[in-house]
Design brief:
heterodimer, A: alpha/beta, four-stranded antiparallel β-sheet, B: 11 helices
């Protein structure tokens, strides 16, 4: 049985407003240890706002977020220490090189990154040669690897990845999936947002589909396909006779292109 | 499950190391900040011996314009750029108190202020043969920090009000240029102009710096200038903090 005590992330009745606009509407979900949880939704559905509230970048108007047992409003530093975050658009001081960036974030998380540890880390992310390169000089895939290494440098209980494979080539994407799965193997909980249904099906244990700030479906990718495969809307949008998660997603969120 | 949070002192140390490294890597840009004060020290040499100007006038103008450059060009642009690139957002999701991010940035600027003051003193000594009392140098050193705070606070207000880094840059340059003009023409013997300039952020800082170099000439007008300088700092800093957003998204 899933109890809040077992959950690495517990979000209850979360509401986020930007002025009069409600971006997140009574959202509740949980993530267990060793689970990859996908938050899917069209542009502007409320994925990033939900994640931002969990990360503490924006303050919710109501609802609670608990990370590893710490309320993000009451114990923000403990909650942030328990999570590793990879933001959608993130950057590091452009004057610093890769080694300096890794050392900075290791120190921020209270870790001492000795030279052997640094070299081992760089080797692990296939960037042994890039130690002295500036972050801006790295390719998209290399930047993503540095970013993920920083996200997980302190072995966080919860890893939040906002569209981690956006803009990556298939090879880099596959490599990242392997890294995400390796994090899961260690028992850490992972939340990722993505527009790629292929990715969600491939790596997520459970997903929630969010639209207009509300969660409209939750389950394993296969259970959602099975549940909705006979819906007329799903049959109408399915192609080549095989129902996919993307068909279910489009049927639930509509064909309209979002801004 | 017990989660340990890093010590604030360790976090501060890491941030300072990164910010000082950034300062060092930007040394060419920082030399440009020192350029205008140096030009003043070199080109106004003849004014040092003029009774109506004197050494305190030259040094106080040079330091004031350097402080303006640090606050408006260095600090403001670095904050606008890092905010736009998402550097602050990445730091904000880490387990550090938010005040440490800005404190580290401000301490780096404080170093620049102290460096500027020393460079102007040395240049004045070396090239203009300006000799002030030790107490004058020390007092001015402290006052330059007070004066620098006005422009850092003004920079904070600009970067708080304006989101786009290019617009921040152009606005800061425009204001910097205005201060240079004020510095060049403010001392013209036009009564109303002089009165206005005296009570601008430029004029008040210049007044207290000049009095700092010659502590015996400190008078009630200098005290008023000091109070006004502190007032400007409080107003600009309050607005800057109130308006400031960590992200442009």
């Amino acid at each position: 049985m899933d109890t809040p005590q077992n959950n690495i992330l517990q979000v209850d009745n979360l509401n986020v407003y930007y002025g009069n606009f409600q971006a997140v509407n009574n959202v509740s979900f949980f993530v267990k240890q060793g689970e990859i949880f996908g938050l899917l939704g069209p542009n502007g559905a409320g994925k990033t706002s939900t994640l931002s509230a969990v990360e503490g970048l924006i303050k919710q108007q109501s609802g609670t977020v608990t990370v590893a047992g710490y309320d993000t409003l009451k114990n923000p530093l403990h909650a942030r220490a328990a999570m590793g975050v990879q933001l959608q658009a993130t950057s590091f001081q452009p004057e610093l090189n890769v080694a300096e960036i890794l050392e900075l974030y290791a120190s921020i998380y209270g870790l001492k990154l000795t030279q052997p540890l640094l070299h081992a880390l760089l080797k692990e992310i296939n960037l042994a040669e890039a130690e002295n390169k500036k972050f801006g000089q790295l390719s998209g895939g290399q930047q993503q690897r540095v970013s993920l290494a920083i996200t997980t440098i302190h072995d966080p209980k919860l890893v939040l990845l906002d569209e981690p494979t956006s803009g990556l080539d298939p090879q880099s994407r596959r490599q990242l999936w392997s890294r995400i799965e390796a994090i899961r193997e260690k028992g850490n909980g992972i939340v990722l947002t993505t527009h790629s249904m292929e990715e969600a099906e491939a790596v997520c244990d459970r997903i929630s589909i969010i639209d207009h700030g509300r969660i409209i479906a939750t389950g394993t990718p296969q259970s959602l396909i099975d549940k909705h495969r006979n819906d007329p809307e799903v049959i109408a949008v399915s192609r080549r006779g095989k129902v996919t998660l993307e068909d279910v997603f489009i049927a639930l969120t509509g064909l309209e292109v979002r801004a | 499950m017990e989660i340990a949070i890093p010590k604030t002192s360790e976090v501060m140390k890491a941030l300072l190391k990164a910010d000082y490294t950034t300062l060092w890597r930007n040394r060419r840009a920082n030399l440009m900040v020192l350029l205008v004060p140096m030009i003043i020290v070199f080109s106004w040499k003849s004014m040092v011996s003029m009774p109506m100007f004197g050494p305190a006038f030259v040094l106080s103008n040079a330091i004031t314009l350097g402080l303006v450059a640090i606050g408006l060009m260095g600090y403001t642009n670095s904050i606008a750029r890092d905010r736009d690139k998402g550097v602050f957002q990445r730091l904000r999701v880490s387990p550090l108190p938010l005040w440490t991010i800005m404190t580290s940035r401000l301490l780096v600027q404080l170093t620049m202020i102290m460096l500027l003051t020393i460079v102007v003193f040395v240049a004045g000594y070396q090239f203009d043969h300006i000799r002030m009392s030790l107490s004058g140098y020390l007092f001015t050193f402290l006052i330059s920090i007070v004066g620098g705070a006005v422009y850092l606070a003004l920079g904070q207000a600009i970067v708080g009000r304006i989101q786009n880094p290019e617009t921040v840059n152009s606005s800061a340059r425009l204001i910097y240029f205005a201060f240079i003009v004020v510095g060049m023409f403010g001392e013209l013997n036009v009564a109303y102009l002089k009165d206005i300039v005296t009570w601008t952020p430029y004029g008040t800082v210049k007044t207290i710096l000049a009095a700092g170099l010659e502590p015996s000439k400190w008078n009630s007008q200098t005290t008023n200038a000091l109070l006004l300088t502190l007032g400007y700092t409080i107003v600009f800093a309050t607005l800057g903090i109130k308006w400031f957003k960590w992200s442009t998204k």
